[in-house]
Amino acid sequence: MAAVGEVEIDPEGTFKYILVRLQRPGGGEQRDIVRGTKAAEFHNHIFEKVNPEMEKLGYECKCLGGGKIDHNSKDKKIRVFGLSTGYGKADHSVTVEILKKVYTDYEITWSDDKK
Questions:
Q1: In what order do the strands lie in the sheet with 7-9?
Q2: If you average pLDDT over residues 65-90, what whole number do you get?
Q3: Which of 11, 31, 51, 90 is the most buried (most CB within 10 A)?
Q4: For this structure, is 43 an active site residue?
């Protein structure tokens, strides 16, 4: 599972994101990853891209929810907020902890605000 990056998000802007749980078939090892991009009109578009990639690597995927990310690389700030109509709200506190592992010198916050 270490081969799969924990975070793949756009370098700038406000965009949809999902929190995805990877698991080996039959249980055992599992890991949560964050994926987000402006290219996705809907949250399921992100999942539809991630799921086949992870299946090829032998993982089962489950979307735990979604929201939005506001990524300001100039000021080194990330804000996690909102929800996914289809998948429900991700646990933004979990998302923030994952983001902090990658963006160690950023100020990262979350809220249940819609905008």
A1: 7-9, 30-37, 13-23, 60-72, 77-81, 107-110
A2: 98
A3: 90
A4: yes
Whether the predicted pLDDT of 1 surpasses 80: no
Q: Which residue has the tokens 């991700």?
A: 90
43, 45, 71, 92: the active-site residue? 43
Task: Residue 18: name the closest of 69, 56, 54 by CA.
Answer: 69
Give CA–CA dist 115/112, Å, rounded. 9
* Closest to 64 in 3D by CA, of 104, 41, 92: 92
Which residues are bridge partners to 80 per DSSP? Answer: 69, 110
pLDDT in tens, 24-76: 988 788 999 999 999 999 999 999 999 999 999 999 999 999 999 999 999 99
Cα distances (angstroms) measured from residue 22 to each of 34, 49, 67: 11, 14, 18
Please, are residues 34 and 101 in contact by the beta-carbon 8 Å criterion? no
